Amino acid sequence: MKALRLFLIISLLLMVGCTGKTGPAGPSGLSGTPAVNTFQATFQNGVYPTSGYSTELDTWLNGASGTPTTASPYLEINTGSSYSNYGRILVKFDVSEIPVNAQVVSAEILLKLNSSTNVGLSPVTIGLHNFTSDTNPGCHWTINATWLSTGLTGWNACTGDSTQQQEGYINPIIVSTVVFSSSVNGTSGIYKWSIDPSIVQSWLTSSTNNNGLILKSEGEFGETVSSVDFYPYNDATAANHAQLIVTYQ
């Protein structure tokens, strides 16, 4: 009898069904931050972005000469006791391949050392500088630039500096430096300088802002004579040309 009663109760429960309280909802997941795409552009004559790229220009200014130094097989940074011993390098890249609305994250310039380099007893600290902000068209140099001329007009047209030392057209802020000692004499390697992203960003804003960069010894005055030499834009081997690497979003 008890067994029959238990069977009827179980059957009734199965027919009616059981209802329980609904538990609390689990926590909602946080929305993830969308990934930011990062791109990298490399510029090098005859190599990047394509083998047809040829709009990187460079030359060097010889303090002892009023004539263009394009005949030299190297780009030279020279030191000594007076301006007539100095040598400075100018370099400029066309970056129009980068979208004008891009946000530059980082940038660096790479130069390949030539084995003709001859550093004396004292190390040479080579600093990277931007040009002054003057955008006078006459200030945009060519490969025919000299110590006293942009190749188009005198440097004094840009800054009013007509002295032979010609410091006026160089932005005094050092962007980055690389130190070379006599241990590099007779060697050939690639050396890099970092570039403040804001400098490259300004090149994207307007092509008239892009007057390139200057590399010079930070101790030109009173140094022993040294020469740090790099391959130029028109070297027969494309892999020796200067490079600019830009990371952007």
Note down, in words, how this protein is organized:
This protein has one domain. The protein has helices at residues 2-16, 156-159, 197-205, and strands spanning 39-43, 57-62, 75-79, 87-92, 104-112, 124-130, 176-180, 190-195, 213-217, 226-230, 243-248. The N and C termini lie far apart (82 Å). It contains 3 helices and 11 strands. With 249 residues, the protein is of the alpha+beta class.
| Radius of gyration based on Cα positions | 32 Å
Counting copies of identical and different chains, the oligomeric state is single chain
Distance between the termini: 82 Å
Number of helices: 3
Q: Tell me the total number of β-strands.
A: 11
Low-confidence stretches: 2-10, 12-30
**Helix and strand element order:** HEEEEEEHEEHEEE
Tell me about the largest β-sheet.
5 strands, antiparallel
Order of strands in the sheet with the most strands? 2-4-9-6-7
Helix content: 10-25%
User: What is the total domain count?
Assistant: 1
Global morphology: globular
Structural class: alpha+beta
Question: Approximately what portion of the residues adopt beta-strand conformation?
Answer: 25-35%
Mean pLDDT: 85
Summarize this entry quickly.
This protein has 249 residues and is an alpha+beta fold.
Q: Which helices and strands occur, and which strands form pairs?
A:
Layout: H1 2-16, E1 39-43, E2 57-62, E3 75-79, E4 87-92, E5 104-112, E6 124-130, H2 156-159, E7 176-180, E8 190-195, H3 197-205, E9 213-217, E10 226-230, E11 243-248
Antiparallel strand pairs: 1-11, 2-4, 3-10, 4-9, 5-8, 5-11, 6-7, 6-9
